[in-house]
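To assess whether ligand presence alters the predicted conformation, the chain was also submitted together with zinc ion. Input:
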Amino acid sequence: MRSDDKVLIFDTTLRDGEQSPGVALGTNEKLEIARALERMRVDFIEAGFPASSPGDFESVTAIAKEVRGTAIAGLARAVGGDVDACWDAVKHAAQPRIHVFLSSSDIHILHQLEKDREQVLEMARSQVARAAKHCSDVEFSPMDATRSEPEYVFRMLTECIDAGATTVNIPDTVGYAIPEEFGDFIRQIQEKVPNIHKAVISVHCHNDLGLAVGNSLAAVRAGARQIETCINGIGERAGNASLEEVVMSIKTRGDFFGLSTNVDTTQIHRTSRLVSQLTGMSVQPNKAIVGANAFRHQSGIHQHGVTKLRETYEIIDAHDIGLSRGGMIVLNKNSGRHGLKSRLDELGYEITSEELDRVFVAFKDLADKKGEIDDRDLDALVSEERRTVEDVYKLDLLQVSCGNQLIPTATVRIIGPEGKIAETTSTGTGPVDASYRAINGLIGVPNHLVEYTVNSVTEGIDAQGEVTVRIEAADRTFVGRAADTDIVVASARALLNALNRLLAHMPREQQEVWANP
Ligand code: KIV
Ligand code: ZN
């Protein structure tokens, strides 16, 4: 497994990525992402934090049982219960790993853990030893390592390797490091930790200063051989190092790094889309590698150059990330169920026959409205279908009247649990506001709308509008998304989707929340 010119990719989209504000994935969604990561041939999937909730335990267990081609890791605090729960979940994997973490910075030790350095050292040592009794593959992370006293980190790593850690991961937990300094830190670890040759050095960088990828690459230059990443760079706060940027940097600048990864880069584009769809976190258009503009040229000089020789203005071949250049395959209302199914297969969707039935109906409906349907429409249709199926409260009817001489008014009818129906009419400053007032009037869960965006799925006036909303309730953020050719309908469905996610987090007995049945 260990080779000095291989950089291992430890993907934490399902653990740190899921800690992105507003993201909450169900077990089936996590399984789908895990299968995509397996196809992509990452070396490790951190599937979750089993002791953090019964839901996380269930999904780590399911992934460990089902995803056999990749090593599966679970996260555990350095406490016995966490380590044992982590093992109970990952033990089903073909190659299980327990990832134990404990803070090493004084600011965390004194103010969060309320302990002293010696007590913390003992916790780290004893819990790594406990994990090593369960499993031969143990990773240890001194959390907030980059704001810790270096000598203390060296001591902690030495003791944890003696206790059985086979990988030591250096987290830049708050995204504080600067590449040169971080590279030096990794070099010092190799000089000052006497048993470091027994472990792989890993890094886990956050993006608070926009340096997560730069720091990860500096660490690799200094000798680290595992990088922790998230698809699309999602994760706590400003996110983690993005998998696609790290992997494509190592590949594109092989001349500089002299290293490679095991990742099948042709899976990058499709996995990025899948994660964006399932998490509800859009990818900014100018995002490196996977942004919509990453392979588009605006200036005439650039366009001219690229048509003569792609390399004049492109350092990456779009095919290398799985993007087909020759234009997308377009379906239309004459396309049959079979044509739709084979395109969805090519796009990587694992779709059941019932799902296909429903997507096909929605596809025909959309094709009638807008003629040509491309891959972006299909993405929107499939995710719309999947979202709606999981929603307990569904939009049955929406009727709005608005215009420059009218008071915007919306009538909304919602179908809830056990088929109960409720309907109301509200006015507002515009049709979306009126619809939102009506929905909130029917579903009585206090919430605050903090973000509302509409994007066009494709070009053209007949395009579907994709609406993303973020609502806050009880100190949490929930994302909702929906697409429709009618943006008022998409807006209403997006709010309902966010409310359904919010309700799924409430105790079951409080989930029936009609304010006005
Ligand atoms: O950012 C961090 O320190 C972490 C650890 C649990 C590795 O996510
Ligand atoms: Zn992290």
